[in-house]
Amino acid sequence: MEIRSTTDQDLDAFVATFHTALGRFSDAPGADGGGVWWAATEMDRNLLAVTADGRPVGTAGAYTFELTLPGQVVVPTSGVTAVGVLPTHRRQGVLTAMMRHQLAELRGRGEFLSVLLASEAGIYGRFGYGPATYTQRLTVQRHQAAFAAPRAVRLAAGAPAGGSVELFKRADCGRILEEVYDRYRRAQPGALSRPRRWWELGAGQVPTAPTARHVAVHRGADGTPDGYASYSMDGDTLTVDETIAVDDAGYTDLARFVLGHDLAAQVVLKHVPAEHPLRWQLEDFRAVQPGGETDWLWVRLLDVPRALTSRGWFTDGELVLDVDDPFLGEHHRHLLTVRDGKAECVPTDREPDLSLDIRDLGAVYLGGTAPSALVRAGHVLAHRPGAAALADALFRAERTPHCLHWF
């Protein structure tokens, strides 16, 4: 078996092999691939596993993204996608070979992070990926959706007040959505970029895909778009695909808009971060019914010192991390020292404070998974009292990391 990079001439074979691995059928893509999931695929970054007689039996791809780290640090990352093996060739080492080949390529590109969305939670941990962001669905019965009067002053004295909501059809506001999302993702830990070609080609899912949707665009007091909610109605259920806002005031205005929609008996807000304040904003605390909580973005560190010194930090401290990377056959001990928001990470022979697997370091990296939770779960070993609590304080982010992008 050979693992090789693809070219544009391999597109049909790549798509057909991946669909077959999923047990689905695929039509041959059109000349431009417009409006379908593979429209933005980067064929020079994809891999095919091919048998000795030339038959493709496995696929793995990657997109070129930017990821926002704690501290509003934006770094390049690869978004691993379209990973599949034909049913006839599973459990024969094909997936392992592709993942090993891909990680070597990513390192060869000088990258220190890789991310993916896991179709099954049990697959990617053994390759060093850990769940780093989470998302949930909120369902609100509209007759219970009255907002409570705020118990604190919403705006600082002298600050401009007011915002407005304007309604568009999806086909008429693509550039607005692109600009608002880009502004949002640069300040949101865990958010991925949506490259221009995704919007231009209609790749992926709503709202990058041009599927018919109503879009409520929020404008700040100065008239600049700073948020949106993409939604559709099915019977008496209004479903919000995605809500984006650069601040809480804009998100609240958009929530008021969708929760006040006539003829809707219930409103479903998809892809809402954990600890969202909406239930606290309503008169009836129980009106908001959380559900569908799941992991979303999985993170893999390829260069631990570079990764740890790239993100922002919000507590001073010092930890010795003993990190095992069994998939790549590596084991290193690092002294992490944080002062004034910056980190230094150097090799050390000191006794460790925490011993952990590379997948666990990926899980805590963005601040969405508490190290102490992994200690309690038996994944991470704390060698001294207080080490887990210090790790919690060090690895926290300025806000809950969240990723909306599907790829």
Automatic annotation (TrEMBL):
N-acetyltransferase domain: which residues? Answer: 1-195
Gene Ontology MF term list: aminoglycoside N-acetyltransferase activity
Matching entries from SUPFAM superfamilies are given as: Acyl-CoA N-acyltransferases (Nat), SCP-like
Q: Which domain of life, per UniProt? A: Bacteria
Enzyme active site: Y124, F407
> What keywords appear on the UniProt entry?
Acyltransferase, Transferase
| UniProt family annotation | Belongs to the acetyltransferase Eis family.
Subunit and interaction comment: Homohexamer; trimer of dimers.
Q: What is this protein called?
A: GNAT family N-acetyltransferase
Source organism of this protein record: Kitasatospora xanthocidica
